[in-house]
From TrEMBL:
Signal peptide (UniProt feature, chain positions): none
Organism superkingdom: Bacteria
Name used for this protein in its record: DDE domain-containing protein
InterPro entries in the cross-refs: DDE_dom (IPR032874), IS_Transposase (IPR052183), RNaseH_sf (IPR036397)
Matching Gene3D superfamilies: Ribonuclease H-like superfamily/Ribonuclease H
Species name: Sandarakinorhabdus glacialis
Sequence intervals crossing the membrane: none
GO function term, MF aspect, one: nucleic acid binding
Higher taxonomy: Bacteria, Pseudomonadati, Pseudomonadota, Alphaproteobacteria, Sphingomonadales
Limits of the DDE domain: 2-122
Length: 148
């Protein structure tokens, strides 16, 4: 995803799992094989090898070939929708903050935003109101215990 910092284009690499939770976020100035390789290695330390990469960016293919996991890049018309939809809450919060001024701030914010959003996102459309309210209050109680 593209993010402007002081009217200069930067790139935010994000790994999203099959449920839409953001696993990893990494900010760079470039969008090439070296940046993709750095991101994939960082992600693989925590989460292991990716099963599927759905982005059409050719840098992913080159980086995956170097890692030895070349056959996992799938590029279909709607395969990347889960990742693209995960950008929306981040974009709303970025707009409310009136953009970023430093790449370090972007990196820090994206990591914190991902973990907080994952904790409180309960997919309201899949459950009844009572279950949703119970899960939401449990998440809030857990959050207050962690922060308190």
């Amino acid at each position: 995803m593209f993010v402007k910092i002081n009217s200069e284009k930067h790139y935010l690499w994000r790994a999203v799992d099959h449920e839409g939770e953001v696993l990893e976020a990494f900010a760079t100035k470039t969008r090439n094989k070296a940046a993709a390789l750095k991101f994939l290695k960082k992600m693989m330390k925590r989460h292991g090898k990716p099963e599927v990469v759905t982005d059409k960016l050719r840098s992913y293919g080159a980086a995956m070939k170097e890692i030895g996991n070349a056959g996992v890049q799938e590029t279909g018309r709607w395969l990347n929708n889960r990742v693209e939809n995960s950008h929306q809450p981040f974009r709303r919060r970025e707009w409310a903050m009136l953009r970023f001024r430093r790449m370090h701030t972007l990196q820090k914010f994206s990591a914190v935003h991902a973990s907080v959003h994952n904790h409180f996102n309960h997919e309201r459309h899949l459950v009844s109101r009572d279950i949703y309210k119970a899960r939401r209050s449990a998440a809030l109680a857990e959050w207050q215990a962690v922060m308190g």
